[in-house]
Amino acid sequence: MGATDKLQIFEMGFGTGLNAFLTAIQATETGRKVHYTTVETSPLFWEEVDGLNYTGVLGHAELFQQLHQNNWNGEIAINDFFTLEKRRIDLQNFQTEKRFDLLYYDAFAPSAQPELWTKETFEKLFHMLLPGGVLVTYCAKGSVRRAMVAAGFSVKKLPGPPGKREMIQAEKLA
Predict the structure, then answer these.
(1) pLDDT value at position 161?
(2) Conformational region of residue 31, where left means phi above 0, alpha means psi within -120 to 50, and beta covers everything else
(3) Burial of 118 by CB count in 10 Å (0-12 exposed, 13-18 middle, 19+ buried)?
């Protein structure tokens, strides 16, 4: 992928919007165009996410507000570099013809949502990726890794963020 191509990102679980926010900041600062598609069944209220004070640490208050206060089930150009498409739907019912370069898989834990951590779910995600595309998730559980491999991914563990020992990077080999 060339530096001028639009990066296609899919996120399962918009949640607080932190992944979208960090990606939008990076896209804006580097001038890299990103089309960001996300699905969420239970969007948080603005008062809940505003109280997290992400903008107190990261700045970009207007950008953060735009990510949260545009409508669901639509697409909006936040700025010249970041387009956001938010869908209020579960992953199982989400359909798209788009293919993605990167998937942020931020579902609740396998113990809370076991249906989102199965071979069948990862097969769907595998088909949503472009060849060479990558899925990343915080969950490094053995059964999750095995389900990803069974779905066709090449899987490796990476060091996790603070408070998390490991995470997974799964690639759809070209």
Answers:
(1) 83
(2) left
(3) middle
pLDDT digits (tens, 9 = 90+) for 68-81: 988 899 999 999 99
**Strands 100-105 vs 129-137: parallel, antiparallel or unpaired:** parallel
Residue with the two structure tokens 């697409």? 75
Please name the residue ranges forming H helices in the chain.
18-30, 46-50, 54-58, 61-69, 119-128, 142-150
Tokens 């595998």 sit on residue: 126
Q: Encoding tokens for residue 58? A: 């990261």
pLDDT at 174: 76
Structural domains in the chain, sorted by start = 7-171 (3.40.50.150)
71 Cβ neighbours under 8 A, 6+ residues apart: 86
Distance CA 151, CA 120 (A): 7
Residue 115, classed as helix, strand or coil, is: helix
For the chain, which residues score pLDDT lower than 50?
1
